[in-house]
Amino acid sequence: MLMTIDWMAQAVPQTAGLHPYIPGKPIETLLREKGLDRAIKLASNENPYGPSPKAMAAMQQAVSEVHRYPDGDATVLKDALADSHSIATDQILIGNGSNEVLELLIRTFAGSGDEVIYSERGFIVYALAAQAAGAIGVAVPESDGLSHDLDAMAAAVTERTKVVCIANPNNPTGTLLHNTSIQAFLDELPRDVVVIIDEAYYEFVADQLGNSVRDLSYPGLVISRTFSKAYGLAGCRVGYAVADSAIVKLANRFREPFNINLLAQAAAVAALDDGVWVMDRVAETVSERQKLEAELSNMGMFGGHSFGNFVLLRHSNSREILQQLENHGIIPRPLAPYGMPDFLRISVGLPEENIEFLSVLQGIVRELKN
Q: I need a labelling partner for 175 at 20 to 30 A (CA). Which of 61, 91, 208, 335 fits?
């Protein structure tokens, strides 16, 4: 008879209470659950237009080389990013999506007894990464309007604080901090704290935010970006950060070899060279977002202005709305895990997808009123 072992007792202490990140429900899962033959996914803030033509062509060309390991240092991609930001290549940290970049940085600088500060309704990966590293997560409540309370975050910094995370624009609340406010916050901090400005949705606010890499100044500043949103490469998993070369060098000690696959590297390099196409899709997304927010406002379900590629729906019966949307083949993202039980996050889809979503939603609301 096999001996029963309590493997939780053998695991590192932070395993208790640690749960995997739960992504948006896949289309295939909903089709199986509901017996449907089609569905619209509006749950994961993906680019519905897909990758640029240059990125797709680059991946197709690279397919014949997939029997070879990729460049472990992603040299061509780092060169392209360094050129686009007018910085040195040793200031760039490459990750398997910006999620890995965040995890690498937190694991590098925060361990047992250290503190990682983030907004209470900031991106949930900050809390997960802090706990996985054995660090203490410090969640600071937002100010009015679901925005980061920078004064409260600065006041929360102690001698044990190693990392501060700020999502700008924030996911899931969609709020935006201007760089003047962020710089004033940075000026209040000790010089030896790592501050991550997570700009996963930067392209949607570039005209309003300005050049964060150039405009913000702080020794421990890290600015992270991703190719998953505006560039339409969510399935490739490419993210990066810009930081002091000494910070990058240390984080690279924790980075897995070949963490960015060959096709992803080729696609990201080509996507950078297709900037006009990308920004045209951003403009279309922003236009569609404004239409969605206007309609939600007319329906009395507007959850607040968003600066990302998603909108916020707020209703006291959001759970029922979620179920009914899924019954009609539309997948939103519930925000109850963020302490926002009345909210659903709706990714901006293609124009025809947004029209269908609004039509279905109007029918659901009529039923709820009866």
A: 91
Does residue 340 have a pLDDT over 80? yes
**Nearest CA among 309, 331, 314 for reference residue 322:** 331
- Confidence band for 369, pLDDT divided at 50, 70 and 90: confident
DSSP state letters, 302-322: B----SSSEEEEE-TTHHHHH
DSSP annotation string for 269-289: HHHHTTHHHHHHHHHHHHHHH
Residues 6 or more apart whose CB falls under 8 angstroms from that of 268 comprise: 55, 77, 80, 227, 231, 233, 236, 238, 260
Evaluate the CA torsion angle 358, 362, 367, 369 in order and state its sign. positive
Question: Domains (ranges, CATH) in the chain?
Answer: 23-50+276-369 (3.90.1150.10), 53-273 (3.40.640.10)
Q: How far is CA 229 from CA 63, 98, 202, 234, in A?
A: 23, 11, 9, 7
The predicted structure's pLDDT at residue 14: 86
SS3 for 95-128, per residue?
ECHHHHHHHHHHHHHCCCCCEEEEECCCCCHHHH
Identify residue 266 by its one-letter amino acid code. A
Other C-beta atoms closer than 10 Å to the C-beta of 290 total 14
Structure tokens at 263: 């096709």
132 backbone dihedrals φ, ψ, rounded to 5°: -65, -30
Radius of gyration of the chain (CA): 21
Please, are residues 328 and 360 in contact by the beta-carbon 8 Å criterion? yes
- At residue 1, the pLDDT reads 61
Please spell the DSSP secondary structure of 123-174, one letter per residue.
-THHHHHHHHTTPEEEEEPP-TTS---HHHHHHH--TTEEEEEEESS-TTT-
The pTM of this model reads 0.94
Distance CA 250, CA 246 (A): 6
Burial 322-335 (b: 16+ CB within 10 A, else e): bebbbebbbbbbbb
- Please write the tens of the pLDDT for every residue from 228-266: 999 999 999 999 999 999 999 999 999 999 999 999 999
Tell me which residue of 38, 348, 92 sits closest to 240, measured CA to CA.
92
Look at strands 40-41 and 330-331 and give their pairing.
parallel
Residues 6+ apart with CB under 8 A from 14: 131, 132, 133, 134
Q: How many Å apart are CA 138 and CA 160, to the nearest integer? A: 11
